[in-house]
Specification:
Pfam families: JHBP. This is Protein takeout. Keywords: Biological rhythms, Signal. There is one protein chain. This protein is an alpha+beta fold and 256 residues long. 26% of the residues lie in helices and 41% in strands. It has one domain: TULIP domain (Bactericidal permeability-increasing protein, domain 1). The strands form three sheets. Strands 2, 3, 4, 5, 8 and 9 form a six-stranded antiparallel sheet that branches. A two-stranded parallel sheet has the order 1-10. Strands 6-7 form a two-stranded antiparallel ribbon. The two termini are 20 Å apart.
Length: 256
């Protein structure tokens, strides 16, 4: 099924974070061009579902007007926090108005399912994500008073992620629809470059020291940020998938 507008369905299941779908749904019996159908009894059904999600994702990356999907990037996250150390001098930083680009370049690389219990595990890969945000911080870092604020930038290469979710089927007007009941996710990043700029106090010496610390400890800092990132991404992804499932009947893309 060729498609001129497409995005990896991994985005549907993850980091993903994406815009809300419009309130219009496909016609009752028509199979939309962005749906690749699979058969439940196919011994290679997992491979088919991986292709189906990649097909939908590729369409999504450029927009699906029928679902009201137009601008798919940047992915927006309102706030993420990090805490290093404890006590009154512990370092705290909050990142606001985060914009992430590159998520729509993801590809599904693995799919495991139990269709009887409606359990899905999706593995995907994103070559590179770039992010920008505003940040505010307080406390001491590397023995320096690091309170202040400015702009944050990050480049994350080789992103691997897994999303697991349990769904439940429900009938609406004689057709089966899925709804996500539980979702978990995890991710790793091979290479990270990040830093701060435009410090509010204009202290270029502090800025250089902080950037040296950040890039020397990038993976460790990511681990500290990970719980907050996963929490926000699971919320956004679950809402997105449920929004999608509520508009596309299960029996439209999974044939018996």
């Amino acid at each position: 099924m060729a498609c001129s507008r497409v995005l990896p369905a991994a985005l549907i299941f993850c980091f993903a974070l994406g815009p809300l779908l419009a309130q219009r749904s496909p016609q009752r019996h028509q199979v939309p061009y962005f749906i690749h159908q699979c058969h439940k009894t196919d011994p290679h059904v997992n491979e088919c579902l991986a292709e189906a999600t990649n097909h939908l994702a590729r369409c999504y990356s450029r927009g699906i007007p029928e679902l009201g999907v137009t601008d798919v990037e940047p992915i927006l996250i309102d706030e993420i926090s990090i805490a290093l150390g404890s006590g009154p001098n512990g370092y705290r930083a909050t990142f606001n108005d985060i914009e992430a680009f590159g998520v729509s370049n993801m590809t599904i690389v693995g799919m495991r399912t139990d269709l009887n219990s409606l359990q899905f595990q999706v593995s995907f890969y994103i070559p590179k994500i770039t992010a920008r945000a505003h940040y505010k911080s307080s406390g001491v870092l590397i023995m320096v008073q690091a309170s202040g604020g400015g702009d944050y930038w990050g480049e994350y290469e080789g992103v691997k992620a897994k999303v697991y979710f349990q769904a439940q089927a429900q009938q609406v007007k004689g057709r089966n629809y899925l709804q996500v009941e539980d979702m978990k996710m995890d991710f790793s990043v091979k290479d990270i470059k990040m830093g701060i700029e435009n410090l509010h106090n204009g202290n270029t010496v502090l800025q250089a020291a902080l950037n040296l610390f950040i890039n020397s400890n990038a993976q460790g800092l990511l681990q500290e940020m990970k719980p907050d990132i996963k929490k926000k991404m699971v919320q956004k992804t679950r809402n997105f998938v449920n929004n999608l499932f509520s508009r596309i009947p299960y029996d439209m893309w999974m044939l018996q």
